[in-house]
Amino acid sequence: MILSPQQCEQAIQCSFNDINWLRIALTHRSAASVNNERLEFVGDSVLNFVIGNALYEKFPKANEGTLSRLRAGLVNETTLAERARYLKLGDYLILGSGELKSGGFNRDSILSDTLEAIIGAILKDKDIFAAQQWTLDLYADLLNATSEHHVMKDPKTRLQEYLQAKRLDVPRYTLLSSEGLSHQQTFHVECRINSSKLFSTGSGSSRKRAEQHAAEQLLELLSNGKQV
Q1: How is 152-201 classified by DSSP, letter by letter?
Q2: Which pLDDT belongs to residue 105?
Q3: What residues does 187 pair with on adjacent strands?
Q4: Where would I find the H helices in the chain?
Q5: CA–CA dist 181, 69 (Å, integer)
Q6: CA–CA separation, 120 vs 105, rounded Å?
Q7: Residue range 119-126: mean pLDDT, rounded
């Protein structure tokens, strides 16, 4: 069941003056002619500005190339989709029947575009300062973890390094299923630690992205105190 924009307000911790802005941000082009593509365009610009400026302030001695590299690691589709899943945006997406059947609610491209559209919606409903603060709050942990000489590592790499540091088996990834048309497939993968009963599942528009999602889910379990 698709949850309402009003419920989404609570999930993203942002109250809108005009809820229609959020409704549009959650609407994929497959569902209506009035959709989130224009807001995504605006939100993408805001996101790049906010993250770029935050990196500029954090690393006063970094050159343009370093700042661009760091920003690219924070605003790419995979990172945006991870942030969107953290907010559970898939529960609120307004999709056409075809996208619903093919698992569009969990596709990286749709999730990342929706997150950018929400940033655009906050700008239009409020102002640039509100959009900036919401984005900074969303990215606070990633910005804190970013160092000038370290590119943000992907979830699979972070999980493997975590397990190796504890002298545990490397994770095993197993394809559970795939669905949808050849150009719009959704893959479902299990990530399991051989020496433990701990496992997670993930989905994505490619097997690689599904594995990254599964690794991210397992890292979240470990960060919440689950024992290996």
Answers
A1: PPPHHHHHHHHHHHTT-PPEEEEEEEEES-TTS-EEEEEEEETTSS-EEE
A2: 86
A3: 178, 204
A4: 5-12, 19-25, 37-58, 64-75, 77-86, 97-101, 108-125, 128-145, 155-165, 207-223
A5: 34
A6: 20
A7: 98
The model's pTM is 0.71
What's residue 196's pLDDT?
76
Buried b / exposed e over 143-162, threshold 16 CB at 10 Å, is beebeeeeebebbbeebeeb
Task: Identify which of 107, 52, 99 has the alpha carbon closest to the alpha carbon of residue 80.
Answer: 107
Average pLDDT over the chain reads 90
Could you tell me which residues are beta bridge partners of residue 166? none
Q: Give me the active site residues, please.
A: 44, 116
Question: Are 70 and 146 contacting, i.e. CB atoms less than 8 angstroms apart?
Answer: yes
Name the DSSP class of 150.
B
> Domain spanning 5-145 has what CATH number?
1.10.1520.10
Where is pLDDT greater, at 25 or 79?
25
Distance between CA 2 and CA 12 in Å, rounded? 16
The span from the CA of 37 to the CA of 129, in Å, is: 22
- Tell me the two tokens of residue 37: 């593509």
Going from N- to C-terminal start, the domains of the chain cover 5-145, 155-223
Residue type, 208: K
**Structural contact between residues 18 and 31, judged by C-beta atoms closer than 8 angstroms:** no
Please tell me which residue, 210 or 182, carries the higher pLDDT value: 210
What dotted CATH number matches 155-223? Answer: 3.30.160.20
